[in-house]
Amino acid sequence: MSRISGFFGGRSKSQSELFAAGMARLMAAGKARSFGFPSGALATAGAGNLEIAQESGCVAVVDGVFYNPTELAGDAGRGPAHQLIATYRQRGFADALKCINGDFSVALFDEQSGTLWLGRDRIGVRPLYYYTRSGVFAFASRPRALRSLPGVSHDVNRRHVAVFAGSHYRYIDNAPDESPFADIRQLPAASFLQWKGETVLVSRYWSLDEQPEWTDSEAVLAERYRELLLNAVGDRLKASHKPVFTLSGGMDSSSVLASAVQLTGARQEAVSSVYADKTYDESDDIRGFVTEKVRRWQPIPIEDFDLFDVVRQMVRAHDEPVATATWLSHFLLTKSVAEQGYDVVFGGLGGDELNAGEYEYFVFNFADLRHRGLHADLDHEISTWAKHHDHPIYRKHRDAAMGHLARLAGNTTGEVLVDCERLSRYYPAVKASYYDLRGFQPVLDHPFSSWLKNRTYQDIFRETAPCCLRAEDRNCEAAGLGHADPFFDYRLVEFMFRVPGSMKIRDGVTKRLLREAMKGILPEETRTRIKKTGWNAPAHIWFNGPAVEQLLDLVHSQSFRERGIYDVAEVVRLIEEHRSIVKSGAAQDNHMMFLWQLLNVELWFQEVVDRVPELVAA
Question: Would you tell me how many other CB atoms lie within 10 Å of the CB of residue 138?
């Protein structure tokens, strides 16, 4: 894996190249390469192949992978940077990006026109940030590099920090062009940027729009789905040398691994996070699958670690607080994987969003059925939802379904409402003098006439996917690994947004079309399993015992109080209440997610915000 950077507006070619190369070295260990020219410089650094090219009056750098090199202009054997230039010369920059199927962030400088172009893949698998002020423009794969430049403010983005500190993790990426730092912007997914002189223009080159739903039979669509998923997995296998597959007990990661077995005719190697606490441990569900499809399975026990020390390592690797505790398990897992010589980690991200796999998607399917006047179907779906998915805390019955509909589904066709309870539950913990969260109004997009599709779209571009993709990228990069998520192949995404809701949720069972597509590929035990544990971690246990005392010491420290973010008395109350809930074993919602976010915010300030990085010289 490599990282890319660029600097424009320096007083000399050598200064620009010094800044660009220094930023690249701040982000990635290994070698670095750069090209300078009178107006600026581009650079890349990393342990693998460095994708940088200069030809035809252009310089280009690429972080990521192009999965369809034979469909692009130029010689595929010369690498993505050469192909980006060749395709740009044929089609222009935006159309060149439309031709690429890949996970990438790229930059291209056209010396003839004096124009810099930046681009990011359709889903946002690879990151890209930029800074501009007073004739200076710089970009980098990570905020860390930009923070090292002279003139860049050390201030944080208070809105971002407050939302992370006192709201739900789903809302931290609601503004896709922001970063945690006041002066640093993020290029959104599926977008490109043009910089010339002092003018910055950001536009989209790809979007998901309302299209007629498929009218083919479920059998026909399942066959098409199978072909698309196998193709997506196959393309990513070609780009790896020694892949390893993360494996949970669910459909998504299992489908990716089983597809690889189908394509290669060989069992694959897999790793899983496992826990002594059985709340989120999926070992029992995994074992049957392993017997049929896995050559070597490594269960990685997530235990006996120093919570504070690991979170410190993570925020340094991420440049920002980490969204959920699940990614601590992934962080430790990737460290183990890297030590064994694997190069690419395959995962199932995107499967829940595309296949309506999250529990809350039931509500939006109910809204679609009600809108279409399918009242008998609605009654049936509510009944089977309650039958299959009742929970001692989150009960499932008709009154609950109607309550969820009133709270989350607006009266306008397709209108998804903000979950105000989830959004504001911890607002009292954040001081209004730091940032008044009561004025925070999340943006909800409604490009479709379906509630279910709009909820899915929101998750992919503003809620669940952005923070997960960023965490996966940083964890893998820190371990020197690549990563691949075949469900986020844009062709599969486009296909699934035209699949009727009845082929996603039916009879109280999610992922119906995926289940049909995986007949003969997935073991029946896995393919037909209805129960969903969910990819999570037992952070309720982590924030217990000695860790609680450490957390209380942190909260009572002078530095914590002086930041002025949290209401200390309210935070202490939540910590004590969490400890009481866990100790009692009561079937009651605890505060583990809030405590995870609290710890990440404070350690991020200590390890990142309060320590400005210095440019790395050649």
Answer: 27
Element of type H or E holding 268: strand 268-274
Closest CA to 125 of 613, 541, 461, 544: 461
What's the CATH fold of domain 2-128+187-204? Glutamine Phosphoribosylpyrophosphate, subunit 1, domain 1 (3.60.20)
Considering only CA atoms, which of 446, 445, 427 is closest in space to residue 436? 427
User: Whose CA is closest to 470, among 315, 274, 300?
Assistant: 315
Handedness of CA 281, 285, 288, 290 (dihedral sign): negative
The answer to whether the Cα torsion of 100, 102, 105, 106 is positive or negative is negative
Q: Where are the domains of the chain?
A: 2-128+187-204, 218-354+462-527, 360-457, 539-609
> Identity (one letter) of the amino acid at 436?
D
Q: Taking 60 as the threshold, does the pLDDT of residue 584 lie above it? A: yes
Angle at 518 between CA 515 and CA 519, to 5 degrees: 95
User: Does residue 485 register a pLDDT over 70?
Assistant: yes
Task: Please name the amino acid found at residue 570.
Answer: E
Strand partners of residue 230: none
Calpha distance 565→115 (Å, rounded): 41
CA separation for the pair 486, 618 (Å, rounded): 37
CA distances from 177 to 39, 173, 203, 426 (A): 26, 9, 12, 25
Confidence of residue 545 (pLDDT cuts 50, 70, 90): confident
What whole-number distance in Å separates Cα of residue 165 and Cα of residue 597? 6
- The packing angle between helices 307-318 and 546-555, to 10°, is 60
Give the span between the Cα atoms of 204 and 189, in whole angstroms.
Answer: 8
Distance between the two ends of the chain, CA-based, in angstroms?
Answer: 20
User: Given a cut of 80, is residue 533 above it in pLDDT?
Assistant: no
- pLDDT category, 149, cuts 50, 70, 90? very high
Which pLDDT score, from 0 to 100, does residue 377 have? 97
User: 218-354+462-527 domain in CATH 3.40.50.261?
Assistant: no
- For 305-361, the three-class secondary structure string (H helix, E strand, C coil) is CCHHHHHHHHHHHHCCCCCCCHHHHHHHHHHHHHCCCCCEEECCCCHHHHHCCCCCH
Confidence band of 10 (pLDDT split at 50, 70, 90): confident
CA atoms of 339 and 114, how far apart (whole Å): 44
- Which amino acid, one-letter code, is at 307? L
Say yes or no to pLDDT of 539 above 70: yes
